[in-house]
Amino acid sequence: MGGGGRSPLFATDPNSIDAAIRKQVQQGTAVLERTSASIARSTAIAVETEQVGTGVLGELNTQRDTLTRTRDRLIDTEGELTRSKRIIRTLSHNVLYNKILLVIIILLECAILAAVIYWKFFMK
C-alpha cells in the first residue's frame, strides 16, 4: 500500500506538506488580492458616484431656486396684468364717455348755430 494515491497533506514527506500549504496560502493570497482590488474599484466607483450625485443635487437646487424666482415673477406679472386690464377698461370707458360728450357738444353747437341762422335770417 503505497502512498502514491494519497493527498499531499496526508503524505509523510514534510516537503510535500509544506509545498501544499504554501500553494494554498498563495492561492488564498491571490484571491485576497483580487478581492481587495475589486473592493478598491468598487470604492472608487462609489466615491465617483457620490461626487456626481452631489453635483446633480447642487444643480437641482440651483434649478429649484430659478423656478421659484420664475414662479414668483409670474405671480407678480399676473397681478400687474390684472391691474393693467382694469386700468385699460377704465380708460376705454372714459374714451367712450368723452366721445359721447363730444357728440352731444357738437349737436348742441349745431343746434345753436341753426338757431342763430334762423333768428338772423328769418326773424326779421
From TrEMBL:
All residue ranges annotated as the T-SNARE coiled-coil homology domain in the record: 24-91
Claim: rRNA processing is one of the keywords in the record: no
Top-rank taxon, per record: Eukaryota
Keywords, ordered alphabetically: Coiled coil, Membrane, Protein transport, Transmembrane, Transmembrane helix, Transport
Protein's UniProt keywords contain Membrane: yes
Gene Ontology terms: biological process: Golgi to vacuole transport; intra-Golgi vesicle-mediated transport; macroautophagy; protein transport; regulation of protein localization to plasma membrane; retrograde transport, endosome to Golgi; vesicle fusion with Golgi apparatus
Subcellular localization, as worded in the UniProt entry: Membrane
Membrane-topology descriptor: Single-pass type IV membrane protein
Entry GO CC: cytosol; endoplasmic reticulum membrane; ER to Golgi transport vesicle membrane; Golgi apparatus; late endosome membrane; SNARE complex
Residues spanning the membrane: 95-119
GO molecular function: SNAP receptor activity; SNARE binding
Family: Belongs to the VTI1 family.
Protein name (database record): t-SNARE coiled-coil homology domain-containing protein
Provenance organism: Scylla olivacea
